[in-house]
Amino acid sequence: MKRYGYICLWFLFFFGYSSAMGAADQWGTGSLMIIVERENSSVVVVDSLKHEILGRISDLGVLHHASISFSQDARYAYIISRDGWLSKLDLLTLERVAKVKVGDSSIGLTVTQDNRYIAVSNYKPAVVKIIDAETFEDVAAIPVEREVNGETVPSRVVGMVDAPGNLLVFSLMDADGIWVVDAGSSDFPVIKKYWDIGKMPYDALLTPDGRYYIAGLYHSRHLAMLDLWELDKTKEIDLNNPNKKTAKMAVRKVPHLGGWSMAGGLFFAPVVAEARLPVYRSGSFELIKSISLAGMPMFAMASPDGRHVWVNFSGQNHRLVQVIDVATLEVVKTFDIGDRVFNMEFSPKGAYVYISSYKDNKVVVIAANKLQIIKKFDVNTPSGIFSTIRAHISGL
Amino acid sequence: MKRYGYICLWFLFFFGYSSAMGAADQWGTGSLMIIVERENSSVVVVDSLKHEILGRISDLGVLHHASISFSQDARYAYIISRDGWLSKLDLLTLERVAKVKVGDSSIGLTVTQDNRYIAVSNYKPAVVKIIDAETFEDVAAIPVEREVNGETVPSRVVGMVDAPGNLLVFSLMDADGIWVVDAGSSDFPVIKKYWDIGKMPYDALLTPDGRYYIAGLYHSRHLAMLDLWELDKTKEIDLNNPNKKTAKMAVRKVPHLGGWSMAGGLFFAPVVAEARLPVYRSGSFELIKSISLAGMPMFAMASPDGRHVWVNFSGQNHRLVQVIDVATLEVVKTFDIGDRVFNMEFSPKGAYVYISSYKDNKVVVIAANKLQIIKKFDVNTPSGIFSTIRAHISGL
Asked: Hey, what's the signal peptide range on this chain (chains A, B) (predicted)?
């Protein structure tokens, strides 16, 4: 009897304890930061209000260029690895709750507007995979290819975004195309195919209002823009006629269009291989200014209040982050963050900026209003940083 | 022994069961809808992905004109009752975890950009109360008053918003003023006082970029606008020179400025007591069109994709909601929702619209892309609907 009693008490203690711990360990999912540990096949989940690491989720595949999207309730993070593993991470329990192989070489993903599916863009095989967000079943594979001289040419897929109207939009890197899929129809039809939009799209963005899809082109001097309200034809935007052109520098990295910004009616677009940031008027794309910088911009990210644009660099001065005042278009602050600054992300309402220093195994937190570093913490080879505020933004 | 064993098993079953239930009952907090049950002193919490009621939290005071703001992680909803009770609702456990009396007659609230404080605007007493969001301690009371002919005149406070730079901005209804408080300083100093901005501000909004604070004036023909980047002086915006003026109708309700909208570079502003919606160009405030409607607009809310503006009415045709296409500025759909439509709110990325029919004790859910009613559910005297997406938007 005594023995059973003890066991019973032990169980009670154990369950009571877990239960109490459970209560203490609960968190809302609205302001979490998921930081990719690039060489560690893992992510850490951070509370961006307290700047504390809540935990780590491991064994996620090859995370070079890994990308993350969120369910709309911000409960789940979906991460796609470079080697084609799509994982579903529960941000309440910090466990992987599902995984599926979606390709041999994958590059991006998005969650549909209705929150029901995940669309993955592959380099290989040349398909867009549609996965049921709840069951993680493979529900469709859209072949991405073009007929050229009677031959079928498969294409790598880039610039995958979800868009209002429950659409998916993506670009065909090897076929100079932009396609639009209706994710509200059970067979996921490609409802529009735009061809010869320019040479070799390499990335794309959706404007914050969800209306314009803009693709960057590796071998053309313009950008291709599609108005999703019209779904008519793509327009060319020429960003290559700046007043003050500086000498070209060797290309280290193609600027990601995800790091382009709009703020204060202006459009900030890094150009490939130059140590400056051209500023255009939104809409007309008239060049306003070309801001000289410490290096070749990799990302140029507007703060949520549009007050500043934060820039990091590839190649020369990769330790630095420069902050541009949108009102004056001048650099107002230069931070030495650490070896190889990779990514930046804002906390909700822009109070803090998280910046990853890949080689220093460090994430630096800056109070955005005061432009002051307030904390540094250890993260293993940090690269991409993804705030759960993305759960509510079309195109992310 | 046997008996202890049974008890032990029972406990095990009980804890195992609760634990399992706990897991099943978890949810992310990113896409919840909190619906005020106006005459029932309660709110219901709804999963806006499944359109299911998760639970009810009661005993919240007099909820006429009740307002809700959220912690940035969307874990907590802060609700202010008309009779001055501020409650903290845990959206993971659906329990009230704190309450404090902050006034005799309260009207609005906001959470500061740094997520540390709740600022409550009172009618009576004439103070802004600052409450610690974590401890719920009363940390400051800012007297709101003006010296007039040597006498101190207290003022009701309206249009309370949080703004970038960790600021609080609000208007003085009985003193024709706008004040700015630095919520980043421990003594919450009023750093700017603007006087004679126009006669009797009654409500205000912060533009979505967090830059402009615009106050509506009951007894002036203009609006007062403050540029928070400059913090210089207020400007007058005149919205009262429309091309097509219709006959005035009796005022039933003053349009809330929170229901004004910007979309597609346009500004939609209901005017008091007229059955039309004037549309202005953003920035210049030039009148583009005056759209004839079924009644006097109460709220005119742009969908998150800026594609449509949804309008409900006070007085005549209070059962209806009309949808305006922003591209054509024409009414494209009219819904008969139910008796006394009070409020509308979008789910994340705008896939669904929730609309409260106060007198019918019903909330109607519409698929925004297809403009189709997909569900109705029972809610006791529903009025305000607050999505947790507000947790990340300055000014809400």
From this structure: 1-23
Q: And the tokens for A347?
A: 């906390």
CB contact under 8 A, A26 and B165: no
On chain B, the residues whose CB falls within 8 A of the CB of A76 are: 28
Q: Output helix, strand, coil percentages for chain A, rounded to the nearest 5.
A: 10, 50, 40
The arithmetic mean of pLDDT across residues A126-147, rounded, is: 97
| A5 close to A16: Cβ distance less than 8 angstroms | no
Q: Is residue A386 within 8 Å of A77, Cβ to Cβ?
A: yes
CA–CA separation, A115 and A383 (whole Å)? 26
Q: How far is CA B295 from CA B244, B291, B335, in A?
A: 16, 11, 13
B24's CB contacts (< 8 A; 6+ apart) are none
Q: Is B362 a residue whose pLDDT tops 50?
A: yes
Distance (Å, whole) CA A345 – CA A387: 7
Give the closest-approach CA distance of B357 to chain A in angstroms: 25
Q: How far lies A114's CA from each of A332, B49, B158, in Å?
A: 41, 8, 36
Please tell me chain B's helix, strand, coil percentages from 3-state DSSP, rounded to the nearest 5. Answer: 10, 50, 40
> Beta partners for B279?
B268, B289
Q: With CB atoms and an 8 Å threshold, state whether B28 touches A306.
A: no
Mutate to test the interface with A, among B73, B92, B112 (most CBs of A within 10 A): B73
- Tokens 């195992």 -> residue: B16
Decide: helix, strand or coil at residue B151.
Answer: strand
Distance CA A39, CA A41 (A): 6
DSSP codes of every residue in A362-395? EEEEEETTTTEEEEEEE-SSEEEEEEGGGGGSTT
Buried b (16+ CB within 10 A) or exposed e, B220-238: bebbbbbebbeeeebeebe
CA distances from A269 to A8, A216, A248, A395 (A): 65, 10, 16, 18
CB-based contacts of B390, cutoff 8 Å, min separation 6 = B68, B69, B70, B396
Looking at residue B250, what is its pLDDT?
42
ipTM for this prediction: 0.89
d(CA B246, CA B254): 18
Give the phi and the psi of residue B258 in degrees, each rounded to 5.
-60, -20
Q: Which residue has the tokens 């509506």?
A: B216
pLDDT digits (tens, 9 = 90+) for B129-146: 999 999 999 999 999 999
d(CA B304, CA A210): 8
Interior CA angle at A276 toward A331 and A393, to 5°?
80
> Which helix H or strand E contains A19, and what residues bound it?
helix A2-24
Residue of B257, B328, B317, B319 lying closest to B293 (CA atoms)? B317
Q: Distance between CA atoms of B146 and B173, rounded to whole angstroms?
A: 11
Interchain pair A30, B70: CB under 8 A: yes
Q: Which two tokens stand for residue A202?
A: 């390499």
Could A165 and B369 be called an inter-chain contact, meaning their C-beta atoms sit closer than 8 Å? Answer: yes
**Pick among A48, A70, A349, A374 to test the B interface (most B CBs inside 10 A):** A349
The pLDDT value given to residue A24:
57
Cβ contact, residue pair A164, B307, below 8 Å: yes
Whether residue B264 is predicted with pLDDT greater than 90 in this model: the reply is no
Q: Which residue has the tokens 């200014």?
A: A289
Among candidates B329, B336, B369, which has minimal Cα distance to B351? B369
